[in-house]
Structure formats: structure tokens, C-alpha cells
Design goal:
alpha+beta, Sufe protein. Chain: A, 3 strands, single chain, 132 residues, three-stranded antiparallel beta sheet
Length: 132
């Protein structure tokens, strides 16, 4: 029974509780070049179940990502060394001017949740093109 729980039931429960987080809809460098972003500071949030969520504060200047803060990232079952490495995610996004970057292998769900929160903030900054 212990093996059944460990190898079959526990993974099913974890996926069900955390839900599915994907990189679908995240903007790449090319996508960001195609839109006009309004300068300002924007807050983004992403929540997927009780054990996974992130909040970000994104600063946009001259239409570019200039500062990304990660004040809250709910990460359960994540090793401490991985949490330290996750602090580099905002730096990489700014350097590449892309929201869609490689997730940390040790915290892929948390990385994707953080990327989704940044996308949420950037969506608020997109200037709607006027209708012709």
C-alpha cells in the first residue's frame, strides 16, 4: 500500500492540487517587439490551486522591461538552493526582453507561475491599437 501511494496516488494528487501550468500565452522577445507598451509600474498575479502562485511587479520604461520584482512566490516542495536560483529569473527576463524563458528544472511549476504573473502585468501595459 505504501508503494502504491508513493508512486501512483501521490503524483496524481499533486497534479490535481497544483493544476496544470503551461507556458502557453507567454510573450517572447519577438512578441514584445510587436506591441506597444505603456510606461509605468504594473502588478501581476497568478494563482493555481492552494500550493502554487506568484505575484510580480513590473516596471516598463520606454516600452521595455526595466525592473521585475518577485515579492511573493508560493513554492511548496522546493529546495532552498532552487529558491535562491529563482531570483535570477527576473534578471534573465530583462536581459532577453522576453517573458518566456527557460524554467528552472528544480522548480518548473513555480517558474512558470512566476512567468504567468509577469505576463499578467505586461498585459495591463499593452496599448490597444486604435480601430481604423
Amino acid at each position: 500500500m505504501n508503494r502504491l501511494f508513493k508512486y501512483i496516488l501521490l503524483p496524481i494528487v499533486c497534479v490535481g492540487v497544483m493544476g496544470c501550468v503551461s507556458d502557453r500565452g507567454l510573450m517572447t522577445h519577438e512578441d514584445l517587439k510587436m506591441v506597444t507598451l505603456r510606461d509605468g509600474v504594473y502588478e501581476g498575479k497568478h494563482r493555481k490551486g492552494p500550493f502554487l502562485g506568484a505575484r510580480s511587479i513590473v516596471t516598463i520604461e520606454e516600452g521595455k522591461l526595466t525592473k521585475i520584482e518577485m515579492p511573493t512566490c508560493v513554492i511548496f516542495f522546493t529546495k532552498v538552493k532552487c529558491i535562491k536560483r529563482s531570483k535570477k529569473l527576473p534578471e534573465e527576463m530583462i536581459q532577453k526582453q522576453s517573458i518566456k524563458i527557460d524554467a528552472l528544472s528544480c522548480a518548473s511549476y513555480s517558474s512558470l507561475s512566476f512567468m504567468q504573473s509577469v505576463q499578467s502585468a505586461v498585459n495591463k501595459a499593452i496599448v490597444d491599437e486604435p480601430a481604423p
